[in-house]
């Protein structure tokens, strides 16, 4: 870990936010937000429309796995499709989303399974959550989603949903809330390979899954950058980190 920490110690939380704001996924959601022409700060009459689209971001994040294209391409496709689209209830949302998945080029696998996951969110949609409070307490959002989806709070789709929700909320509410320190980073193949390289280990065993989590938790503490913000730094520097000694 020491070598990886030394390579990353020049970066701060401010750098992580800067990298996130350059993320193509962030920019895709910013473009979608601007297309909807919300007033900032938003007016009360727009609250329902804003809540609908915050819900939409969460729903899309939860089926953002086993993609048939790059994630950045998928979110740009998503943004373009939902520009100027509206829905008033869960059934309208579901039909609209089903139509989107039928047309997408970058999320064509396991469509029926993914639609079943979306249906689990119906009660969540109908409960009319206060999404700004979720933005101020993103750990609560992760906990609620983990219960609804019957997944662990550190599951990749759960923490990714919180990340993408934050991107949208940052644009919509026009202020920045940092990720809680105890929200896990999404452990994907990139992070597994970095762990192997800087820990002289293999990530194949179930035992090592916890070792990988502990590795990044400790790295986050040493750098004083919350795990989900650290993800942006690792993503941007991945090629250099994995190739250079």
Give a topology summary.
Layout: H1 2-8, H2 13-22, H3 24-36, H4 47-62, H5 71-82, H6 90-103, H7 111-119, H8 122-126, H9 131-136, H10 138-149, H11 156-173, H12 189-199, H13 206-223, H14 227-243
Question: What's a concise summary of this model?
Answer:
The protein has 245 residues and is mainly α.
The radius of gyration over CA amounts to: 18 Å
Query: Number of domains in the coordinates?
Result: 2
| CATH H level, superfamily name of the largest domain | Hypothetical protein, domain 2
Count the DSSP helices.
14
* Strand percent estimate: under 5%
Architecture overview:
The protein is mostly helical and 245 residues long. The relative contact order is 0.15. 69% of the residues lie in helices and 0% in strands. It folds into two domains: 2-14 and 182-243, no CATH class; 24-173, Endonuclease III, domain 1, CATH 1.10.340.
Keywords:
245 residues, globular, 14 helices, mainly alpha, Endonuclease III, domain 1
């Amino acid at each position: 870990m020491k070598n990886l920490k030394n390579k990353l110690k020049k970066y701060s939380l401010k750098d992580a936010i800067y990298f996130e704001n350059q993320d193509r996924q962030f920019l895709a959601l910013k473009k979608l937000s601007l297309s909807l022409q919300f007033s900032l700060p938003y007016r009360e009459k727009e609250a329902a429309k804003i809540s609908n689209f915050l819900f939409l971001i969460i729903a899309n994040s939860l089926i953002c796995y086993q993609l048939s294209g790059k994630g950045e391409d998928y979110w740009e496709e998503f943004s373009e499709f939902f520009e100027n689209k509206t829905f008033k209830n869960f059934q309208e949302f579901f039909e609209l989303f089903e139509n989107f998945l039928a047309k997408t080029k970058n999320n064509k696998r396991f469509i029926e399974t993914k639609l079943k996951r979306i249906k689990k969110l119906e009660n969540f949609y109908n409960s009319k959550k206060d999404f700004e409070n979720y933005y101020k307490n993103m750990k609560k959002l992760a906990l609620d989603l983990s219960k609804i989806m019957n997944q662990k709070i550190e599951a990749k789709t759960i923490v990714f949903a919180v990340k993408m929700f934050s991107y949208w909320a940052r644009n919509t509410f026009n202020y920045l809330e940092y990720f809680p320190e105890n929200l896990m980073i999404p452990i994907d193949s990139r992070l597994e390979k970095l762990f192997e390289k800087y820990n002289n280990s293999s990530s194949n065993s179930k035992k090592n899954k916890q070792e990988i989590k502990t590795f990044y938790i400790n790295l986050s503490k040493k750098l004083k950058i919350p795990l989900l913000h650290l993800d942006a730094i690792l993503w941007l520097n991945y090629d250099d980190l994995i190739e250079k000694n």
